[in-house]
Amino acid sequence: MSTLTRAPVLKPFTLALIQLGNIGANKAANLTHAREMIQKAVTNHGSNKKPDLVVLPECFNSPYGVTHFPEYAERIGYTPGKPYSPDNSESESVKMLSAAAKENQTWLIGGSIPERDPQDDKLYNTCTVYNPQGDLVAMHRKVHLFDIDIPGKITFKESETLTGGTTLNSFDTEFARIGLGICYDIRFPELAMIAARRGCQVLVYPGAFNLTTGPLHWELLQRGRGTVLAEASEKEEIVYADIDPKTLEETRSGIPVTTQRRFDVYGDVSKM
Ligand SMILES: NC(=O)CC(=O)C(=O)O
């Protein structure tokens, strides 16, 4: 993770999660639609507060399939801590996301896109994050690739064209430290445990779960970490949630597993 300074104090904030309908073959149309949905999330929030953070889903600019990744991949070329200008980026998706964050004055987790590393040409499933000024402030490459083979049901091997990321990533806002993962990453508790021990109060996993292995666990995986406050239907939809720090404080003091771990018995995965 890039940020190992003291985490910001968790403050109340409003989250908007965008679920998109079918992603088509036309990348420009996918980008235009995603931008419209970001604007909609920020302006049509009904009785909720204007969202502080908007999140797009996994693979929002490309059909989700190993044969599509090489064709849709974009060079981002972002290195944490080095100067980076989204306006001059080679990536049309980065340019759009940066502009959308800026014009809507919101933090934006830009789901994920297929990315081509400019140095070694490898492909990744990559999430980029923007502050309300449109700066790209963090990036996460899906660490756990979705490779699965259940005979007669589903065979899918992201690793046929993608490489797994090798870093754990988070970023600080004025209301929270937020850890990042992408879809299948949520099934690996180590990533979440490490993020929590490094001060993240919030974890965000843009996802595009498949309908064979997904439904049994997507809600359960969320519930394992807290109450489910809002849930989308299977259609295109924006869901909102007001996050209250009191819930986190009360839960952590009521069930004090955070301070009762026995690292003398089983070691601390975040220090390995
Ligand atoms: N799409 C994924 O990365 C994961 C998934 O569909 C699942 O875990 O189920």
Summed up:
The protein has 272 residues and is of the alpha/beta class.
Task: Please provide a written account of the structure.
The chain is of the alpha/beta class and 272 residues long. The protein has helices at residues 27-43, 69-72, 92-104, 189-197, 218-223, 245-254, 263-266, and strands spanning 13-19, 53-55, 107-109, 113-116, 123-130, 136-141, 147-150, 154-157, 169-172, 177-180, 202-204, 237-243. The chain has one domain (13-271): Nitrilase/N-carbamoyl-D-aminoacid amidohydrolase (4-Layer Sandwich), CATH 3.60.110.10. The chain has 7 helices and 12 strands. Strands 1, 2, 3, 4, 5, 6 and 12 form a 7-stranded mixed β-sheet that branches. β5 and β6 (136-141) form a beta hairpin. α1 packs parallel to α3. The longest helix is centred in the N-terminal third of the chain and has 17 residues, at 27-43. 38% of the residues are buried. The model has no long low-confidence stretch (mean pLDDT 95). The chain binds the ligand NC(=O)CC(=O)C(=O)O.
Strand percentage:
15-25%
Number of domains: 1
Fill in the CATH topology: Nitrilase/N-carbamoyl-D-aminoacid amidohydrolase
Per DSSP E runs of 2 or more residues, the count of β-strands stands at 12
Mean pLDDT: 95
Helix/strand order, N-terminal first: EHEHHEEEEEEEEHEHEHH
Keywords: Hydrolase
Protein name: CN hydrolase domain-containing protein
Domain CN hydrolase: 13-272
GO cellular component, one term: mitochondrion
